[in-house]
Amino acid sequence: MKSVRFSRIVEASGAPEEHLVLTDPSRDKTLRAAMKACRLMTVFQDARGSNADHGEVGFKVGPARQYLLFPKSLHRFEGRKVVGINYELLERGRIRARGEKIPPVRKHTPTLGHPPRRKSGRKGAPLSDKIVAFEPEESPLEDEQITELKRQVQRAMDHLEKGRAVAALNLLKRIMSD
Q1: pLDDT tens for residues 90-110?
Q2: Of 77, 96, 148, 150, which residue is most buried, by most CB within 10 angstroms?
Q3: pLDDT the model gives residue 64
């Protein structure tokens, strides 16, 4: 079976969206429409072993599968194994309700001469004035205790290096009882 890289398919057919199959596939209109238009890819994800994820055009039922819907047809990639799946190339966005159509992309161009509108209805000081810096309290007593504890643990490690495991164990027990 010939193979094709996932990035090449994304270049030709656009960035795909993940599709979560929660109902019977025969009742999922979005999935059926994508299958009919040849815009669906099944990604096989092997949870065990070191096999890399790979895909195949079409709908394949089974465990450890992920389904990707492409904006354009994948007809010319049918019968090929899809390798090099890069999940960063997926179209990320909000999850839509079943049957909800994908809204067209609208680019907003601000009109010149008008100041930008404030998005929030809140008035008052800017947020930077309301931020309080966090400064942890330092206790000199705790620093001295930590330093002493480190010194005692270092002594126990020195005993272990010299082969005196019993002395090291007794020192560690004394540290824990204090």
Answers
A1: 876 545 555 666 555 555 555
A2: 77
A3: 83
Q: Is residue 43 part of a domain?
A: yes
Token pair listed for 41: 């890819």
Residue 171 placed within a domain: yes
H-helix or E-strand spanning residue 130: helix 127-130
Q: What is the pLDDT of residues 32-82, one digit of tens each?
A: 999 999 999 999 987 777 788 899 999 998 888 889 999 999 999 999 999
Question: What whole-number distance in Å separates Cα of residue 35 and Cα of residue 103?
Answer: 21
* CA torsion, ordered 134, 138, 143, 144, to nearest 10 deg: 180
Q: Residue 81 and residue 92: Cα distance in Å, rounded?
A: 24
Average pLDDT, the chain: 80
- Give the range of the structural domain holding residue 56, as residue numbers without chain letter: 3-89
Domain boundary among the residues 89, 122, 148 is at 89
Tally of structural domains, the chain: 2
Last residue of a domain, one of 89, 110, 127: 89
**DSSP letter assigned to residue 136:** -
Question: What is the strand order of the sheet 40-44 is part of?
Answer: 3-5, 81-83, 54-57, 40-44, 65-69, 17-19
Rounded Cα distance, 40 and 61, in Å: 13
